[in-house]
Fold each of these.
Amino acid sequence: MSDDPRRHVPRTDTLLADPRLAGAGERLGRALVKDAVQRVQQRVRGGEVAPDAAVEAVLADLPPTASSLRPVLNATGVIVHTNLGRAPLSGAAVEAITAAAGTTDVELDLGTGRRGPRGEAAIAALLEAVPAAEAAIVVNNCAAALALVATALGQGRELVLARGELVEIGDGFRIPELLQSTGARLREVGTTNRVALADYRDALGPDTGAVLKVHPSNFVVRGFTRAVPVAELSEALAGTGVPLVADVGSGLLRPHPVLSDEPDLQTTLADGADLVLASGDKLLGGPQAGLVLGRADLVQRLRRHPLYRALRVDKTTLAALEATLRGPRPPVPEMLAADVDGLRARARAVVARLVDAGIDAFAVDAGSRVGGGGAPEHPLPGAAVSLPPGFAEPLRVGVRPVVGYLEDDRTLLNLRSVPPSADDDLADAVLAVAAAWT
């Protein structure tokens, strides 16, 4: 009986009383630590872990935070990757979230001690970035912004929309179904591939609540096509009292030299749209949010609608949005602007470390994408680290997950979507996988 391994398994209360695990319990919660203790005890029973190494094994088994979400290195080459949380936040935005996480003056005027306007500074930063807008509000995503507009302007009325703009967004959600769920009636105009100004004019009537323009951001129709630009549509609607609402989708504030065909908020408003809608977590590079900018009277109408209270964002989103707008350039614009020669040099540097360790690696040119439903046909040249195909899965399930992709029977780690500061982490992850095989 003295050799029975169960007699040598450290007691749960003994392990939890260890100062190192007690400290982890204060940081992560006792329940998480206790679960890790029980897993390690089972490994001790199976002979995988020595009894005197149990505390170290528990510490190694603990998650970095009390959340199940894990930091991932995005080496897919898709800059705004929906499955990986879309835009990575800037350091300034992360610091702003931390500062706002506790008690803050989100709705308090510290000077008077009275209630103050919610998110005033974030709204001011947004208006400074898009001077064509008179006013703005922020809700929790762009679909929420569209639902709020459709409810406030179109409930029980008609929303005029081109057939070619009845798009499907992520996870099977469709714009027409979202609009109809608000109680609005859709008045489709034109055909799938062509719509004319006369189609819009003929659809206007006493029940028209608004005319919508939805940018088909995740697909492109080519060939025999025609669309009506915002400027022409705005001119035709002048004097009718019918507002023109444009959902530009991707959150580009101003024209971008790389993405010349992508609509932006400033230009769309300057062309005559009464309201523009966009996402905050795509090309803007900020937190998930739906941005609504435009005419002050319409924005106020949305702000006073009962649905707005259900869709507004919290203090941490407001803090991150303001820091994104006022702080240094966030990662998404940095990745868009990355120099191809610089990406190639980074790939060669990572490969040099791996080759020195005997790994079959080399640098290759590789295309990348904007992602997130933005600029679907705009290729972005870049560079990647090429590895044998067997690296893909162990990298993805490693301690610091790295998500790459398989192409031509090789694992590619595309550096367009990896910040330069993470190149060493990327190499370390590959080295760790290789070491586990030896």
Note: The longest helix spans residues 340-356.
Amino acid sequence: MTGPEQLPTLPDLVLPRLLDEARQLQPDTVALRRRLHARPEIGLQLPNTQQQILDALDGLPLEITTGKTSTSVTAVLRGGKPGPSVLLRGDMDALPLQEESGLDFPSEVDGVMHACGHDTHVAMLVSAARLLSRHVDELAGSVVFMFQPGEEGQHGARHMIHEGVLDAAGQRVERAFGVHIYPTLPSGTVRTRPGPLMAAVDDFHVRVLGKGGHGSVPEAAIDPIPAAAALVGALHTMSSRRFAATEPAVLSVTHLEAGTTTNIIPETAFVEGTMRTLSDGARATMRAEVEKVCEGIAAAYGCRVQVDLTPGYPVTANDPDEAARVLDLASTVLGPDNAAPLPEPIMGGEDFSYVLQRVPGAFALLGGCPPDVDPAEAPANHSNRVRHHEDAMAHGVAMHAAYALSALR
């Protein structure tokens, strides 16, 4: 008998073919994405989106359950051999924006748009379920497909965790993977990094309380507007003076409101915004300093202040080994030119962080810049002019499938 002493294992033979298989599914991937894009829904209750997913999964060898507190969908694919389970996730919800993308299949819902690419995430995960169903005999374990609503601020991942998504296969998933399309990265590229990838997100809401009066006699009033104006500057200065340059921390005042007309000093003013940090220590410091600055500035202007801090998503932190696995898979499946480490974390937030708090895994960015646009000039996610290159979705499908096959070999 002649031949190599060591033959490649089955996953090693399969992985290089996955991109071609994903491209064969591209017509279905695109069709589903466009249906979802045209009928976007917001929040935790997405009945049309849920039905589109259920219809698209129909006929596949999946065990499907739906959420109780949301319109989530969980699907389990049992492999041909026993083994552990892994989780793949795609989020479902849209944003409250009026679309001006110029696409041929724009949103048909006034004031609602898939401006963060979640329509592509759902379509990629559905096609990954189709692709992996073809390879079920090669899976030594189970794949849990997590279709999640309510990522845009409603903590949808936490809802699904509380309802048992991590144990949907009958055992706790051992690894988890998710991707997010980014129109400001070259199409089809994959970027990720070990450790913190995305920031913790908290919001602050500050009501400055003064004493109203006539605009002609400000000395008889306690004007909250100068206090609010000073507060904006003090908060922005605080975020650059309380943290070392090596500790990323961002505070942005995004809403300032006071008064009704020209000759009335209002009784109150309102200031709110967002805080972004990459460690538990920085997060605690930011929250404490915001309260301290607000109280001090208000007192200096003779006002009182009410500060409400709303906790958001924790830091999205990748397991180092799983981040390395993703980059290695991207190089193998998509080609070395399409895989690169992300040099620094980004300060956006992501509720896949709740999964990664409980399960080793990785979250990755998938480039989706249209080929006729410079990535540096492309409208970003959350813009009502954003466009995502649909060819990149085949790369996302292939990465989902590769991760599962690699983890369950």
Note: The chain has a mean pLDDT of 95.
Amino acid sequence: MKIGTFEVWPPVVLAPMAGITNIGFRTLCREQGGGLFVSEMITSRALVERVPLTFQMIRFGPEERPRSIQLYGVDPAIVGKAARMVAEEDLADHIDLNFGCPVPKVTRRGGGSALPYKRNLLRAILREAVANAGPLPVTIKMRKGIDDDHLTYLDAGRIAAEEGVAAVALHARTAKQHYGGTADWDAVKRLKDAVPEIPVLGNGDIWTADDALRMVAETGCDGVVVGRGCLGRPWLFRDLDLAFGGSPERTRPTLGEVAATMVRHAELLCEVIGSEPHGLADFRKHVGWYLKGFVVGAETRRALTTVSSLAEMRERAAELDRDQPWPAEADGPRGKSGERAKVMLPHGWLDDPDDMTVPGADAEDATSGG
């Protein structure tokens, strides 16, 4: 798969996930297999205003090539300035734009998956991003639309292709679905048919490497985006490497092997954050994902989430039943799911899809994410 001048093999992208895809997690996944590994989402306004935390979030490791950054923005001028900064200051090699976030605090201000409904505003943002990114490829990630009555992905895909976007990724759910229900892979096929001139990547319900192969076969998409499927399973990237290379081999780690990966993950987070207590606190949310399906007592799980040093982490991990085999039930969905009753939108947002009014600055604050 080619994105701009970059050859991406296997044709796999790690989806940006807030609080997850920091340099530590990206390093862990890269150690398992190849692909394109994207940073956590950052706001274009925070980048332009040089917020210190934002610059911490876009650090990359010495081996990360290409360096991929995801920007979120609602104002064409600000997005353009951010893209120019990334290019001129050599902050990254690839820019991805987020138009898929379904989190209420984002959509209620006109951002994320709400924005493509304003097709002229979308076009203006993409035009500014591409024009200011120079030689850097610009891609977008989006959803099908706001809900089944307000689908936007086909128009958005065509606009992206017309404005010089290098690739489009579709999470085949609406904002209303959030992470519930089943991803509509047929939508990925329809998008590929609509914009055959650029790569289309499919996202949604890829829990195993075989799911990825099936999505490509069924939709004709050029590659896949993996998000929740790799939570607690960074070795999924090894499986994807094997699968796209034609190998039937798949990783089925024992609990001992999972424990070793947990320790490695915790070590990387402590190194990146620069503090064992803070790194281990950040690791807590990963414990349940790693142990899903394994027979591990509640007290042991609690102990692993309350360690205060890496030495203690290693001790607790060593107490796990190292020979316990990989449980079949661990292959299924992970992370929160469930539909929303409604999508939060600005007042009158659906009245005029051609309206070019730019959402206010509060739609792009440093805490936006999802």
Note: The radius of gyration is 20 Å.
Amino acid sequence: MADVGMVDVSLRDGNQSLWGATGLRSAHVLQVAPLLERVGFRALDYSSSTAMGMLVRTHREDPWELTRRTRALMPRTKLQFIGTGFRFISWQNAHPETMQLVYDRLAVNGIDRVVVLDPMHDMDAARETARRLKQAGIDEVVGALTFTISAVHDDAFYADLARQMAACPDVDRVYVKDPAGILSAERARTLLPAVKAALGSTALELHSHATIGFSPQTYAIAPELGVEVVQTGCGPLGNGSSLPEARRTVANLREMGHRVDIDDRALGLACDFLDRLAAVEELPAGRPQDFDAAFLHHQIAGGVMTTTRRQLREIGMEDRFESLVEEVGQVRAELGHPIMVTPFPQMVVSQALFNVLGERYANVSDQVIRYALGAFGRPTAPIAPEVLDRVLDRPRARELQAEPPPPSPEQLRRQFGRGISDEELLLRAHMPGEQVDAMVAAGPAPQHFNPGLAPVLTLLRELGQRETVQDLAVGKADLRLSVHRRRESTAGV
């Protein structure tokens, strides 16, 4: 039997898939980090440009500072960043030298493992990104084979990509990334051996979401098919639209006769902390999913599914979800079967929503226009001619085609001033200025969080806003608390 390693996805993909990338704050991460360090994970799927942007936008916290503090608490476990290689936080493509600056600062701040995820599987672009990452000092570069089901994405397609990645001197490992959770055990029995044969001695990992219940079964047989590492989520940040839950995965792999060298007690403590956090913050826990054949059609990844449901609910149209899902499958086919991984799920779902709300392709986002113009590379299959004509036959397409190239780091420094750090420069260049201003004004983020104290602190904060409350006493078996409002002196008035 095989030795199987594990990568934890709770802090990045679990948070994005189940909690809309907004559930975790700096204090949460810093409290659980020492526990995750003890588990023995090979790496943590730690951050992405989306996660960094959400931390600034939602919580007014500095993602660079959080990375530095996490690294100090986790000196041994690799911290992973995932990116496309052509954009940072914003949807617009960034200058190659700006991306080099991103990689340089990631490495300096503690990131030592990066996934190269080119959404078009453009190997020239992936090789160039891997080269730049190594230039920045990233220790481990992981090439992503993003799995999807279509007429063109067969085993031979992925084996050819794996062969090219194995031949690249700057790619250290490869993983099969299944964002929609549609890799069945049956398909894995042909796909994974084909990929492993093409990789030779290059290590193979598997990342498969639990969205329709396939991945726990696929993980159970993956080691016998050449997979050395599987990726999971801890406690409430596993299952559902996230990845298989870590404790159950360990139990299943051991039951199949494989060896999983992790600290079970530390894993239990990490899961317990996240369970208490979810309860206190009223965040949903992932649950094992029933099989849903519709996912084989629309392939909407977990994080996008969560966000889409929330957006429909906010505009009072949650009842249109099934119609939207059907339209997503049609739009994806018309756009040449883009793999449903960032930024394409957001692009396809947004276009499907436009189509459901009005005439099909009457409204088209700038990102769909850029996609049709080739800004993201060449689609695996051609865009439907009538859709291509409809998208490009509009004034906005001509405006975008004439866009100037993205600014270089030197141009950004002239624009934003030379008195700020490179980290702040990168945030200001790719986010609204008022959001970065709010982050700076908020000061250092809290570093401590105790789920047991959270209800008391919330009570005190809310009572503090009520000027009629002068004294408060709380008594229970393990807690006695008295609070008196300070009265301002009136002497000399």
Note: The first helix runs from residue 10 to 19.
